[in-house]
């Protein structure tokens, strides 16, 4: 089946406000699940990214590129850079108060990202149209106003928590639901849409 390719919201769609219960700017959003490759503390080989809430529906994520993230010698692997962007963009759902999954993600690599550098990723929501969440992100090298190295555009789709329960391997889903923080987040989304 052919899919629309546009990652731009329809012209009448405006950037949304954060949900009233969204944490204020400056708040560090913890890991959403300890086994997550992007942010989980228990994921041995993961990126362990940390994300802070920005103004409006936006977040800031830092990716410190280490020797374990190489593609070419001394340079970050493009797939891992895309992963860091997916993680940052995925966190926007928490400010909109809806669990959401990536449907489409396009990454533009503008400059090589060397090992030892920090990528400052700023991600924001450009619009919400029904279940569709249009999001953008830019990653700058070594400073908040550093040169642009990577840009991304994405379409996320809001899903219910049943998406994860139905599709995830039962062992991990069960273990995640035993974590009071995950359970609390799931309940908050369910009772306070
Ligand atoms: C228990 C622990 C919980 C922890 C929670 C943590 C959450 C955070 C995790 C964060 C981790 C980081 C993030 C991650 O890594 S998320 C992991 C990577 N993503 C996935 O695994 C998602 C896999 N895909 C799906 O599950 C389904 O395809 C989804 C749910 C996305 C849509 O299937 P669904 O049956 O629901 O919807 P639909 O097919 O009727 O489509 C609806 C509309 O959308 C349009 N459309 C669809 N696809 C595309 C596309 N590719 N391009 C353009 N448009 C697309 C479509 O045309 C239609 O438009 P319209 O005709 O209405 O105009």
UniProtKB/TrEMBL annotation:
Record bears the keyword Lipid metabolism: yes
EC number of this enzyme: 3.1.2.2
Pfam families: 4HBT
Keywords: Apoptosis, Cell membrane, Cell projection, Cytoplasm, Fatty acid metabolism, Hydrolase, Lipid metabolism, Membrane, Transit peptide
Disordered as annotated region, ranges: 1-30
EC supergroup of this enzyme: hydrolase
CDD domains named in the record: PaaI_thioesterase
Domain Thioesterase: 74-133
Main localization of the protein described in the UniProt heading: membrane
Membrane topology: Peripheral membrane protein
Compositional bias segments (type: Pro residues): 7-26
Subcellular location: Cell projection, Ruffle membrane; Cytoplasm; Membrane
Reaction equation(s) it catalyzes: dodecanoyl-CoA + H2O = dodecanoate + CoA + H(+); (9Z)-octadecenoyl-CoA + H2O = (9Z)-octadecenoate + CoA + H(+); tetradecanoyl-CoA + H2O = tetradecanoate + CoA + H(+); decanoyl-CoA + H2O = decanoate + CoA + H(+)
Signal peptide region: none
InterPro entries found in the cross-reference section: HotDog_dom_sf (IPR029069), THEM4/THEM5_acyl-CoA_thioest (IPR052365), Thioestr_dom (IPR006683)
Family: Belongs to the THEM4/THEM5 thioesterase family.
PANTHER family named in the record: ACYL-COENZYME A THIOESTERASE THEM4
Descriptive protein name: Acyl-coenzyme A thioesterase THEM4
Organism: Yinghuangia aomiensis
Organism lineage: Bacteria, Bacillati, Actinomycetota, Actinomycetes, Kitasatosporales
